[in-house]
Every structure is written in structure tokens, then in C-alpha cells.
Amino acid sequence: MTTVAKDARPVKPRPRKPLAPVPLSWQWLYRPLFPCTLLPDGSPGLMLLNKQVYLVSVLGELPADGPVIVRGVRFTKADGSVYDVSADTFGCDCGDGTYRPERPHGCKHARAAREWLTQIGMEPAGGDHSADPHPCPFEADGPVDADW
Ligand SMILES: [Zn+2]
What we know:
Strand 2 (45-49) and strand 3 (52-61) form a beta hairpin. The protein has helices at 95-99, 108-119, and strands at residues 26-30, 45-49, 52-61, 69-77, 82-86. It has two helices and five strands. The protein has a five-stranded antiparallel sheet, with helices on one face. Zinc ion is lined by residues 83, 92, 94, 96-97, 107, 109-110.
């Protein structure tokens, strides 16, 4: 007996529901330090993001002269997963950021990074990323009572 494959019914494309912005709640458990003269790689902070703890590092360059240039923000989960958010495009390389780029305001990492950088006076998307909102606390003219 032979089986004859039935003709597949034409698949009617279902209209996709527009993606909703991802729910977001974040707070610092302690803040990261930006790269500076004494800590050229900066120092990671801890962020509670949607009830999950992330190690958060500032990806930046410290030019020979002038303030740090922030290139992005790195989120590292406890299981070792690493997600980088670009400070220029606020694109993220996590699954949500990669496969749902049309999501309004991006994935949770991108939203949290954008909100934080905006909150501390860093211009998002193509703006000036060379501000120094958290000067090195170990340098002579840095803040002594930083709240980190
Ligand atoms: Zn992401």
C-alpha cells in the first residue's frame, strides 16, 4: 500500500499581534564603576532586573586624554549568559533583542541600559557618550562620598 501525500492546505498567514513593550523593573544593588585611570576596565555593579540579578559592566574606552567613551553595557547572568547592549543603537544580542527587534523600546536589557544611561545624563543613540558621570572615586578630585 502506498501512501499519497495529501496536498497541504494553503497556510493562511495569521496576522501577528504587535509586540508589547517588555515589563521592566530594575534597581541597582550596587552601581558599576566606569573605566578610569586607576581601574581601566571599571568595576561591575549588580542590578536586580525583573527579579533576576545581573552583573553589569560598562564597556568603554579610556582615551589617553579625556573622559571615558562608553560603547555599551554588558549584562552577565548567574548562569554565565552574557548580553551586550550597544550604547549607540541600544541593540542587544539576547534572544529577545535578536529575534524581536521590532519590540517597542527593545528587550529588558536594552530598556534598562537606556533608562540608566539617560538617568545619569548620557545621551542615548548617537549622542555624546564621553561624559564622566561617575568619576573615579580613587582619584584625588573624585567624589569621596559616592553612593555606590
Ligand atoms: Zn537583551
